TrEMBL record:
The lineage of its organism: Bacteria, Bacillati, Bacillota, Bacilli, Bacillales. This is Adenosylmethionine-8-amino-7-oxononanoate aminotransferase. Keywords: Aminotransferase, Biotin biosynthesis, Cytoplasm, Pyridoxal phosphate, S-adenosyl-L-methionine, Transferase. Its EC number is 2.6.1.62. It comes from Staphylococcus ratti. Belongs to the class-III pyridoxal-phosphate-dependent aminotransferase family. BioA subfamily. It comes from the Bacteria. Substrate binds at Y151, K285, G320, R413. Catalyzes the transfer of the alpha-amino group from S-adenosyl-L-methionine (SAM) to 7-keto-8-aminopelargonic acid (KAPA) to form 7,8-diaminopelargonic acid (DAPA). It is the only aminotransferase known to utilize SAM as an amino donor.
């Protein structure tokens, strides 16, 4: 089909996510037709380096033969049968693998299909856990401790534990109340050292837990890096500190590794950096190598056992989706994890991360670069109008930079004035350098 016909039909029929369609309509859209390795190709035949890993999901590159084969092989047996009342082979094998590779505290796997659903399940499970063990003693527990600037998805529950003001303004009447503490982002804080910031936010959390533990179900957080709202990197020891507080005050620790999981921060899971063993972990995005939707909520044995009973209606977790544990996605995820292991991908990411870090930090002296931060292959460059006052660069200018990057063959995204670099995880050092040099040239040209 011709590009222009697709453009017309796109505007006629598709409502795009997180998009002001009134603005979108004014521009010629990019329509992706195919992918290969670290590149995307559009209907005009243009090629783009995938610097956002197709929304932080792609692991081994596009159109990977082995992943394609894993899908085809499963299709030849069966595509889908329900996990309600029966089980299936790939979902069993994948659950075993996920338990093997995640922190030792996690023993059971509950499947779903989006990161939002994985978090929704986590908060419902955590809430019901307390009701199941003692509904009288824990009757008041109905709140979560959350971090400002947290992002956990778009369903009402996951928005409720998120920390994005716009969402909270629009949906205020629908969302439930939680207790929000500061986001430990050093660049945006008034503290002189990262340690001082870490200790201040930890003592804020401790104060909340000490005074309101009877109301608190658990702490919900993105570990190490708060991604979708601006890639805020936590100070060293913060994650461990939260774990210790959860243990001290007997509340559940729920980590949302939807974005950080499967190597993104330079370890298979962000929790590994600080040897943290959460009660619940949410996974999604890269779990299938970025090919098909799958998510999972992993829990400890203690939580699982609190839901056991001899009677069906008693203590049961009443939650499940039609495609829970779908065979094709589970078989694909298993192959993805095997490839991560066989290709020693984590070691590769640790090496390419050094290149990305070095290249981006060279930009730090630019007058409009306020801050460069990140872990693994998850980096941000915060653009400012005034570096001393940390005043954000005008959004229109940032958008010009992003669209010029696209014009020169680099697909990246901005979160307001923060430009993010979250490339395909298997990207080579050469491709990483290409990505940063396109950005650098655009920055110099647009901001001249
Ligand atoms: N949690 C985190 C940390 C995320 O980054 C995201 C997606 N950006 C989600 C949850 C929601 O995932 P999904 O978009 O698949 O619902």
């Amino acid at each position: 089909m011709k590009h222009q016909t697709l453009v017309d039909k796109n505007l006629e029929y598709v409502w795009h996510p997180f998009t002001q369609m009134g603005v979108y309509r004014q521009h010629d859209p990019i329509i992706i037709e195919k992918g290969k390795g670290s590149y995307l190709y559009d209907t005009k035949g243009r090629r783009y380096l995938d610097g956002y890993a197709s929304l932080w999901v792609n692991v081994h590159g596009h159109n990977n033969k082995r992943l394609n084969k894993a899908i085809e092989k499963q299709l030849k047996s069966i595509s889908h049968s329900t996990l309600l009342g029966s089980s299936n082979i790939p979902s069993i094998l994948l659950a075993e693998k996920l338990v093997e590779i995640t922190p030792a505290s996690l023993r059971k796997v509950f499947y779903s299909d989006t990161g939002s659903a994985a978090v929704e399940i986590a908060i419902k499970m955590a809430y019901q856990y307390w009701k199941n063990i003692d509904p009288v003693k824990y009757r008041k527990k109905n709140k979560f401790v959350t971090l400002k600037n947290g992002y956990h998805g778009d369903t009402i529950g996951s928005v409720s534990v998120g920390g994005i003001e716009t969402f909270h303004q629009i949906f205020n009447d629908l969302i439930f109340e939680n207790i929000q503490v500061a986001c430990p982002s050093f660049y945006h804080s008034q503290y002189l050292t990262e340690e001082a910031l870490r200790d201040a936010v930890l003592s804020q959390i401790e104060h909340v837990l000490r005074t309101r533990a009877d109301e608190i179900v658990g702490v919900v957080m993105e570990p190490l890096v708060q991604g979708a709202t601006g890639l805020f990197v936590h100070p060293e020891g913060f994650l461990k500190g939260v774990e210790q507080l959860c243990r001290k005050y007997n509340v559940l620790m729920i980590v949302d590794e939807v974005a950080t999981g499967f190597g993104r921060t330079g370890a298979l899971f962000a929790c590994e950096h600080e040897n943290v063993e959460p009660d619940i972990m949410c996974l999604g995005k890269a779990i299938t190598g970025g090919y098909l939707p799958l998510a999972a909520t992993l829990t400890s044995q203690r939580i699982y056992e609190a839901f056991l009973s001899d009677q069906h209606g008693l203590k049961t977790f009443f939650h499940g989706h039609t495609y829970t544990g779908n065979q094709v996605v589970c078989a694909l995820a298993l192959e993805n994890i095997q490839m991560i292991e066989e290709n020693k991908l984590i070691r590769h990411i640790q090496k390419t991360s050094k290149v990305l870090d070095k290249q981006l930090r060279q930009l730090a002296t630019h007058p409009h670069v306020g801050n460069v931060r990140g872990r693994g292959l998850m980096y941000a460059v915060e653009l400012v109008a005034d570096a001393d006052k940390k005043m954000p660069l005008a959004i229109a200018t940032v958008e010009r930079i992003i669209s010029e990057c696209k014009r020169r063959g680099l697909m990246i995204r901005n979160l307001e004035n923060i430009v993010t670099f979250v490339p395909v995880l298997s990207m080579s050092k050469r491709e990483i350098k290409k990505m940063t040099s396109i950005f650098e040239n655009v920055l110099l040209d647009v901001l001249e």
